Amino acid sequence: APSGAAMRTEISTAAAFVTRLLRAAGGIGEEQLRYFRECLQEALREHYKHHWFPLLPSKGSGYRCLRINHQMDPLIGKAAGMIGLSHERLFQLLPSELTLWVDPFEVSYRIGEDGSICVLYESPQPGGKTTKPLESRTGCKEEWRIGRASPSKNYSMMTVSS
Q1: To the nearest 10°, the Cα dihedral for 126, 118, 59, 122?
Q2: Cα dist. 136→15, 23, 35, 159 in Å?
Q3: Which CATH number fits domain 4-122: 1.10.3720.10, 3.30.70.1350, 2.30.29.30, 3.90.640.90?
Q4: Alpha helices (H) along 49-142
Q5: Over the stretch 59-76, which tens digit does the pLDDT of each residue have?
Q6: Among residues 64, 77, 101, 118, which one has the fewest Cβ atoms lying within 10 Å of its Cβ?
Q7: Reduced to 3 states, what is the DSSP secondary structure of residue 131?
Q8: Does the structure show a pLDDT above 60 at 81?
């Protein structure tokens, strides 16, 4: 299979995750979110095209890594621009420290510089090698949900939408 097909799950997982963070922050319409997700997937596909090595999953990992750390990731920024979101607005909506690793067979993320790494997607590698120790990763799937919204923020969001 061409690498394009092979990357599809990983890329759609990553794009859906960033989209979900934006949705959780509120204030962006579903139509815009859908378009954002498509634009981000397209940008990732293009960016990763010659940097995807299923036989050496960690090769090029730094290149594929999406990162927000006082600077907006250019690929996320570009997709957001397509729906008219400025970098300033993105910094308000997304965690200020976010790292998203998109590698063959595994998509994981970390919020905060010393947050725990959470796996969004994992599939067994051909040949059954596991790449990274997993013990640090249990039970943090929903961490972004809890860690992000403080009760007061949740409350004000509810009053706005009701």
Answers
A1: 20
A2: 24, 27, 34, 37
A3: 3.90.640.90
A4: 61-64, 74-82, 87-93
A5: 999 999 999 998 999 999
A6: 77
A7: coil
A8: yes
